[in-house]
Amino acid sequence: MNKEEFLERYAIDRKGTNSLKWDKLEERFGDADLLAAWVADMEFKAPEQVIEALKEKVDFGVFGYTYAPESYFEAFINWEREHHGYEVKEEWMRFSTGVVTALYWFVNAFTKPQDAVMILSPVYYPFANAVKDTGRTLISSELINTAGVYTIDFEDFEKQILENDVKLFIHCTPHNPVGRVWTAEEAEKLLSICEKHDVLVVSDEIHHDMTFGDHTHIPSAIVAGGRYSERVITVTSASKTFNLAGLLTSQIIIENEALLEQFDTFVNSVNQTEVNMLGMTAAEAAYNYGADWLEGLREVVKSNERYAVEQFAEHAPKLIVTPLEGTYLLWIDLRAHIQPDSVKEFVQDTCKLAIDYGEWFGENSKGFIRLNLGTEPNYIKQAVDRIIEHLPQS
Ligand SMILES: Cc1ncc(COP(=O)(O)O)c(C=O)c1O
Q: Which domains does the chain have, with CATH numbers?
């Protein structure tokens, strides 16, 4: 599907629909009158087949306890095989009401209080929360930022593991917010260091479907022909790809039998809910029929990125935009124009935008912003144009 058709069929105004992104601006930002370009969800309706499948359930009218049907496993397993080359087995799969919930479970299940848990910073902020809120010790290895392109400081990564006796590493692949789709070489290097020092790896692959050009997502479990699969715990969902976050359904993949048992034992102590019927229904239909929809979405995101990159290059060339290899989140360094302490005032009070601030993702990222590209071009145009118009020249 092309961009025009996608926008025609799926773009929709979400204001006044209990949308966290649009209708909680006053509470989250202290100003209801902002253009919402923050949290990672989108102004697009789900594929028709998803809506039809949900309607069928609703029309039947019974919402009793349910379970993950065989057809769900089939749909997900086919999707992983076809789109990511990962041959998942049904018995490795578990479910949770969201990836973030699962992150908390993993930290609790696989580490003890005070144990050191590592992240690559800056990264999606619930990673740090999951470590701190569970009484573990947060260890960050700072990514190297070279003119906006981020790479892993492998030496520091290993040093931090050794110095802090790290037990678990929470990996984000593709990486939010720096837009990297880690290469096979990077992934192998990272995982081999984890193997060398017996560090377990949680691989958050929620952004796996949103990659561009030659950048190919490689599930951590199949890096180097699956060499590290026994120490990898994967979590992913149809929620980011198909804009289904409100349906609270994600899946966990654990190949290692002992780890799976450890996980089950922990989860049994905190969670006795079955799966969400509507979440399963929606995700199954999305995996079965959503590929064309996803192509259209990718075109929209890429075209939004192009607009931002071209406009900033022409009118604000000192501003650094990180290349978008994956995710629909654009990471922008405003520091050449604005003092980090003044970014909030500039973005909210002057530009009237609600975005994610760099410091949410890591203490060294103050002065950066994250712009959500999963929206109508008109919103991106407004956001970019407002930034350019008001940017102090330096
Ligand atoms: C890396 C990453 N993990 C998890 C999530 C959220 O997952 P969930 O809504 O399933 O908790 C996001 C949302 O943006 C994300 O970027």
A: 3-47+291-386 (3.90.1150.10), 52-289 (3.40.640.10)
